[in-house]
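One record is set out below.
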Amino acid sequence: MAARTANRQSISVLLLRPVVAALMAADGSTPGWLEAFYRATDLTPEMLADADARVSPAQFCVAWAELLRLTDNPQIALLIADRFPHGAFGIVEYVCRSAPTLGDALRHWVRFLNLLDDAVLVGLVEEGDDVCLRVLHESEAPAPASHELCFALLVAAARDLCVSTPAIARVELTHRTRGEPSVYRRWFGAPVSFGAAETQLVFARPSLDISLRTADPSLLAILGRHAEELAARDRSVPPVLAQVERILRKALRTDDAQVDRVARELGLTARSLQRRLKDEGTSFQEVRDKVRRELASRYLEDELSMAEISFLLGFSEPSAFFRAFKRWTGLTPLESRARRRTAAAV
């Protein structure tokens, strides 16, 4: 079983929040770390506050590199794992917690990992008496320490949730470490190899049958359906474009869908936002027109009046909406609605 990859690779900001939390914890004694981090990654606090936002693999890679550079702690992943709160990884984590056994939880993790990170491909591989949670395809911009954190968090969760202690056979990582390997061995309670042929967390097969204290079949059914719906969505939209679209859907209702306002929501200047959208092959005006067109289609289906639609889309008057709609579709809103009604009656 393996997690799917998307056409355009991206990573949820939920996976960046541990990095920022570690920097925030240290920034009090070393002012300027956060500023340096945001400057290097081309991110802002506002972007990371959006739980639905995603970043590029390159930004994720740079974020981890900056964390290691600034803290000069090669084993920072283990420190984060000791401190990170439950529930920080949203629906993926809750689906796993609701599973009946450790094996089921790991299979759900693999199935829905793309909701958090579709830049890597991970699978459960059976080998003799072992079951390996293995990185099958690495990101185009690897962040090796993030694998250390992932494995550490999974082991910590397994120890916390399982009714008996699971047996970790070994941990293998393809990258080298500047840290002391014995620290990793003590933390995982198992052999840890660096410079290995595979990046994998290996369980003794019987451990996968251990029940979870948090198993909840009813909750799992509900969360599983929602996770399936989220996994089916197209996440090929570039990261900044996706955030701008979400902001515009709300801003249009308040007639405040201007570039300055949207830029402030993202912690950017208008010029910087325009530059980023240009880098992603579009412009603010094009994005606003796209969102308006999508919402207009929905509102026409909902049988809202032309005045209501014009207001909700942030147009100064209905005639401006009519002109824009005709430019988008070649039809007036009334002609489009008439065609929809005719098609529905057939």
